[in-house]
Amino acid sequence: VSQQTEPVAMPTGPEDQPVAADAPKLPVRGIKELLTDNLFKDAKNGVLTVVFGALLLYVGYRAFGFIFLNTKIGPDGLPRSGWEVVREPLVTYMVGTRFSRTGIPFSYLWAAIYALALSLGFTVGAGSRKLLEPVDVPLRTTLGILLPPALGAAAILSMTQTITPTLLTLAIAVPFVGGRMLAKVLPMALVDRSALIATALVLLSFGLITGFEPSNVNEFGGLLLTVVVAASAIVLCFPIGVVLALTRRSSFVLLRPLAVVYIELIRGVPLITLLFMGEFAIRFFFPPGAGVPGSIPRAIIMFTLFSAAYVAEIVRGGLQSVPKGQIEAGQAVGLSPLTITRKIVLPQALRTSIPALVGQSISLLKDTSLLVIIGLFDLLGVTRSILANTAFVNQGFTSETYAFVGFLFWIICFSMSRASQRLETRLGVGTR
Amino acid sequence: LLVSAEMPALRSAEKPPIYRDVRFLRWAGQIAVLVVVFGTVYWLYGNVVTNLRSSGLPTGFDFLDRRFGAAIPGIADSANFSITQAFLAGYLNTVRVILVGIPACTIIGILIGIARLSQNAAVRTFGMLYVELFRNVPVLLWIFIGYFVLGLGNLPAITDEVTPLNTFVISNRGIGIPWLNPGSSGMTFVAFIGLGMVAAVLASAYRGRVNAKTGEPARGGLYGTIAFLAMLVVGHFAAGNALALDTPVIDGRLIGGGMTMDIPYAFLTAALVLYTASHVAEIVRGAIQSIHKGQSEAANAVALSTFQRYRFVILPQAFRVMIPPLANQYLNITKNSSLAVAVSYVEITAIFGRIVNNATPAVQGLVILMALYLSFSLSISVLANFMNRRLALESR
């Protein structure tokens, strides 16, 4: 889990390589060339094509049947769609079974999503205005980035009973585009504070999600829990990771071993042992009589501590990639060590680390599935309560349930890794 | 004569006050942080001891001699194990996953990685689908799908088992595969396998020398295999028909004979292997792409076959790039084997999970668990460093 450095940093193939404008054009290849060069060049190649083509066709055939022609016989002898197990408890997949106890109205959740979209749009707009030279993004690339999440949203919305969620989802575009335009028209002084504004919006949306009552988090479940745990851990682990990395690279001989021991110890053990520690052992570390936070905040703490070690290693790699001349140049103009780190080293190091940091975020999101092992109702955990429901228990709905949850994870992770590849080419990491 | 103006002293004669002396401040700052850290740790340790005492839990490691009190599937007499013995049994179960998992994910990963670079569009698409499908879904979900959907849902009951070729048994009680004849003297045969390996190394070394002397093709692999097989045949007769495989049979409601893999083990290992293989495939692809195209073209120019091109030109160079990230993946599969706890396969994490519910202090149990996992991490790191040194480019 986790621990995996996502291989997002690898080039995906010749089509991603920048092509000079005056590069010679390859001859246009038609169907005939595709067949003779690619699929049936010689006998061996032909056999491969037939075997793998048949395999792909069979998988596609089975997948089509599973998705579109999935009918089961219910206990009353009437046919029912296999996807009823998704359609009926859809709200449970999204927010869990105990969400109603919090008393947070769903309109708050939508407001939080809009605040996030506004924040994201503003960050994207500010980022492209501040950091990068204006680039004409081809329509194909934009569609390529938007397609996976749109597909995921469409799949979920096709399961809803009314049209309202669809309209509310389509409306997300408004705050996003609004945020981008805001970043384009606001005075530069404000755009320079974009991080502050975005953070304020994120905090606002977190307040809306929890109904401004942090203990409500304990009643969360489903996709909401998965996203809240992953997002909180990603945000919280980042500063800790940067401090650990700086300490590990520093000349503080007394503090360096502390950072090394922490990073190596955390990276040496599986995440699940840390989650067990949060669940069973962390209460022993609190002074006697002190209140211990609930299971979900404890899990967030453990995810944060876990991820910080990995972020530290990524940032350390980024720090190592900053040429020594940069630091010496800073010293030559008489900057203090702190200013050199803040204004010269860190910005360059973090820029190099962005793809790997996105990869770490993806694996952290996947790791939140481990919450089910300590008995929480995350996206994987709700499948258990749904499959134990009398309407679905022992009626062969297991594969549909896991397929839907897997699809949600797949869409989120795939979209993130695609976006990170795009970011990587735009930042020009490794090419400058 | 030039009289220079008097140079001002580079350093002022008087020392700066101690609170402005950088050297002092650096040390003072570090010591202050250190004191805070160790103070916090000491405070936490005090809390742990107080809390354990007040809830009647032991503060030392004496609990290891207590009875474990639960049976470990597949191990006779495990109900009477002490906690130490249970941890040992769990450790062996973890090793069982790793020993199969690491070679399997390497082989599948290399094949898929090469498939992704194939000229053939069908093969390439297959590789792409495999990688994108497996690596973007959590491994725990793959384990669930394997165990709950395929394992428990689809396997036939033991009473109407499937026995393909009459040599395998597939049922929901376990998967039986043919294994070595238990009637033979196993240790003798294992000794002969060892001898066979020595013979193979000697044979290929001898062929290497012949090649250096006369220039005729070495064919070390071929001669080594022949020497190994020859030793194996000798061992087969010496150990009493050791190679006559024992096939599994249905024995009432159990599987007897051969070797039985229980369902959690089979599907846990399969899920871990397929998931990790998708990451390995990406590493392999990246490593192969990092090899200069001219190497491939040179191999083609001297008319090497595709197999020879990969075997002798590309993979040896790619391995050099691959080893550090590959070792990372081996560490991952080791750490992910802890997810066995979700499908009730009893390895070290599951042992820990059971003892903490059993009036055993979680803190000490966790220390042991971490130590056991660190032992895996360290051995993999040592191996990777060794391989790294062996394969490192000899540079001036």
Structure description:
The complex is a heterodimer of chains A (432) and B (396). In chain A, α11 (222-249) packs antiparallel against α16. In chain A, a hairpin with a 5-residue loop joins β1 and β2 (79-81). Chain A has 432 residues and is an all-alpha fold. Chain A has helices at residues 31-39, 43-68, 84-87, 90-95, 106-130, 139-157, 164-170, 173-185, 188-192, 194-209, 222-249, 256-268, 271-281, 295-320, 324-332, 337-367, 379-387, 398-427; strands spanning 71-73, 79-81. Mean pLDDT of chain A is 84; it is low at 1-17. The longest helix of chain A has 31 residues, at 337-367. Chain A is globular, with a radius of gyration of 25 Å. Chain A has a two-stranded antiparallel sheet. Chain A contains 18 helices and 2 strands. By secondary structure, chain B is mainly alpha-helical. Chain B is 64% helix and 4% strand. In chain B, the strands form 2 sheets. In chain B, strands 1-2-5 form a 3-stranded antiparallel β-sheet. In chain B, a hairpin with a 2-residue loop joins β3 and β4 (254-256). In chain B, α7 packs across α9 (306-336). The longest helix of chain B has 34 residues, at 83-116. The model of chain B has no long low-confidence stretch (mean pLDDT 83). The chains are: A mainly alpha (432), B mainly alpha (396). Chains A and B meet through α1, α2, α12, α13 and α16 of A and α1, α3, α4, α7 and α9 of B.
